[in-house]
């Protein structure tokens, strides 16, 4: 085709129609665009100077990967030289010859085809209809090799590299998020209440969580990431170096089998608590996955649920700290006596399970409230303090408890002010 250019216009080229443009052809052009079809026409259009020009117009819809038409490719070929001249004031005498010469010069300059004198001779109706039919068949049979396809090309990655936004990685990140919340709840509780994983069910469950975090480390060595310029980095060496410099050490410390170590009876209590405390570094994963929740913040219900979850998680952490302070101060290690002003001692008296000294056995203080009652009471105190509606039935008495209560109230007031 000669004088080919891409012409993009919403639905039609109606702004180029004029008084001599055939109405039936206009309707066909409109129907072609409305029905997203391929077609070709001989149509009379007008230039900006209102000069009429005959065009051979071809229309081809361009589809994306979803088989949806996103634009039309329209090509135009000037065929004025082959059409009967339009009779007006400018088509008399030498004007006809000048017009024919200009059309020939224009076509010779833009194509590699040279029009011979034989091509300028009048053609029969059969000779005209045959090229038209062949061109129509050509347009209707345009395949993917001719028509361009506009698609979002996925980055080409090595076989062992995973795209960070693929379905598998997205699902895996949500699994890691759920397990991170599980860790955020259980680790502070185990550290504060000094519980060893003697229950085989919980030991197996925590071991499975550790294995999943270990698998996550392996996957992170084979997962693409977004570079500083917004490009997707799929080079294995760059991926490994980036992960080693960022989250590798934290992830490695978080997936070590601390629960299995704590399960042994001969492990010192201090070392056991230290190993359990190291699992708290998993909480740093919350910052890495929190950005995945950003697109949910535009929904009011999602924001409300998120705030409630965060409030409950913070109250849980503070409850564990509140119990740890009381458990540390309830017994005077110097005199080996019970501090009667401690909130733990008062709770033990109220529940009818006081502390007692086992002089004949272990030589330590035993008894007191159960761990379930201790946790529920601690959580009750922290929630009432954060919301500034404390009833006074659980009150700080020692200096450490008072300092912690003041800090917790300041956090609660600042939080409520932000809400």
Structural description of this entry:
By secondary structure, the chain is mainly α. The protein folds into three domains: 14-140, Beta-Lactamase, CATH 3.30.450; 154-293; 297-419, Helix Hairpins (Orthogonal Bundle), CATH 1.10.287. Helix content is 49%, strand content 11%. It has a three-stranded antiparallel beta sheet. Strands 4-5 form a two-stranded antiparallel sheet. Helix 5 (200-220) runs antiparallel to helix 7. The two termini are 67 Å apart. Residues 1-11, 88-94, 109-129 and 139-145 have low confidence and may be disordered.
Task: Determine the N-to-C terminus distance.
Answer: 67 Å
Strand order of the largest sheet: 1-2-3
Counted beta strands: 9
User: What proportion of the residues is helical, as a percent range?
Assistant: 40-55%
By DSSP (H or I, 4+ residues per run), the number of helices equals 14
| Rounded mean pLDDT score | 75
Radius of gyration: 40 Å
Low-confidence stretches: 1-11, 88-94, 109-129, 139-145
Strand content bin: 5-15%
The tally of domains stands at: 3
Largest sheet properties:
3 strands, antiparallel
- Judged by helices, strands and strand pairing, the structural class is mainly alpha
Subcellular location: Membrane
Membrane topology: Multi-pass membrane protein
Transmembrane segments: 174-193, 200-219, 299-323
Protein name: PAC domain-containing protein
